[in-house]
Amino acid sequence: MDFGFTREDEEFRARARQWLHDHLVGDFASVAGQGGPGSEHQATDVRRRWERELGQGGWVGIGWERSRGSYGNRAATLTQQVVWAEEYARAGAPARVGHIGENLLAPTLLSHGTDEQRNRFLPAIARGEELWCQGYSEPDAGSDLAAVRTAAVRDPGAGNGAGGYRVTGRKIWTSLAHEADWCFVLARTEQGTGGHRGLSFLLVPMDQPGRVEVRPIRQMSGTREFNEVLFDGARADADHRVGAEGDGWRVATCLLALERGVSTLAQQIGFAAELDRVLRLAVRGGAVERDPVLRDRLVRAWAELRTMRWHALRTLGGNGNGNGNGNGRGTGEGAVPGAPSVAKLLWGRWHQRLGELAMQVRGADAALGPYDWTPHRPYELDALQRLFLFTRADTIYGGSDEIQRDILAQQVLGLPREARR
Fold it and tell me: Is there a single domain that holds both residue 66 and residue 18?
C-alpha cells in the first residue's frame, strides 16, 4: 500500500506544528504530556482550559463531515487528520479531556443524529466547552452490552414539550464522568426485552443533583480515573434520543467502531515514546547485552508496533485500500469488516507486554520507587510502574478481548454463536 503525504498535507503539518509551538506555553506547557491513560486525574483544570484553547483555534473536530454543516472547526482530509494527530502527540501536548465527545459522540450524531441534535451539541464540542462520558458498561454486564439493565421509562414531565425519559441504573468504568457535562447512555426503553432488542441511545445531562451520582473507583495504581455512575430517575429529553426508540444497539455498535479511528495513530506515537524509554533503559543498564531473550523481545515489540501502524493506515480509509469517504470518522459505510476489533486485540496485548518488559528490564529495582518520608503520604509510583499496573486493564476496557474475538468469530468468520447455558 502506498500511503504518502502530499505537499498540501505537509503545509498543513507546518501550520499545525506552528500553532502548537505558539500556544503550548505557560500553564499549558507545564502540564505537557500529563493526563494520559492511568493519569487522567492530572491537571484537569488546566487541561479543560486547553480544550477551549484548541476550540478557539478550530482544532477540535477537524474533518467532521462538512456536508452536514460547519460547527466552528476547520476542514481537513483524512491524511491531514493523521498529520494533526501525529503532530499533537509529538509536541507532547496534554492528553485531551474532550476526546470522547469529539471522537465518539460527534461522528455518531453526524451519522445518526437529527439536524437539531447536531446544531445543539456539535458547536459546544468544537468550542471545547462541553465534555462527555460514555455510559455503556454495567456491573452485571461488563462488555456484554446486550445484557444492559439500565432502564429508561417514558415520563411526559421528564423533558421539554416532547416529554422524556426517567433513567435508572448503574454504569461502571466510566472514564472522566467526574468532569463530564453529559453522558450518552445505552438504556433499555422496552421493558421485558432482552439481548439487542429494546435498547435506546440517550443523551443525559450529568448536572442533576440527587439523580446522578458519580463514585470514583480507586485503581491498583492508586489513581481514580474511572467511576461508577448511578442514575436514579435522571431526566433525558425525548428530543435527545439518537435514532429510533429500540434502535440503540445499532447506534451503539456504530459508535464502538469509531473508537479506533485516527486517534489510534496518535496513541501509537505515545506507545513509541514508551518503548523508546524502555529501550534506552535496557541499553544503559546492560540488559540487552546480558539477556539475548530479552533483546529478542524488545526487537519484536518494535516490529509489532510498526505492523500496528500499517494496519491502522490500511484500514482507516474505510475499505482497506486507504480510499475511504474522506471524513476519517468511519461512518460504517464500506468499513473493513472486523477492523476495529482486530486493532483493539493488537494494541491491548502489545501494551501489556510492554509493561512487562519495562519491569523485566529493571530487574529487582522494578519493585522499588521514589519514596517521600513525609508521614501519611502515600507511596508514589514512577511512570514505568504505573505503565505496568495500568496495562493490566488494556485487554478489558474498551471491549474485552473475549468480546472482540466473539465479534470476529460471528460477524467476520460467520461462526455460530456459542450455546448459552
Answer: yes
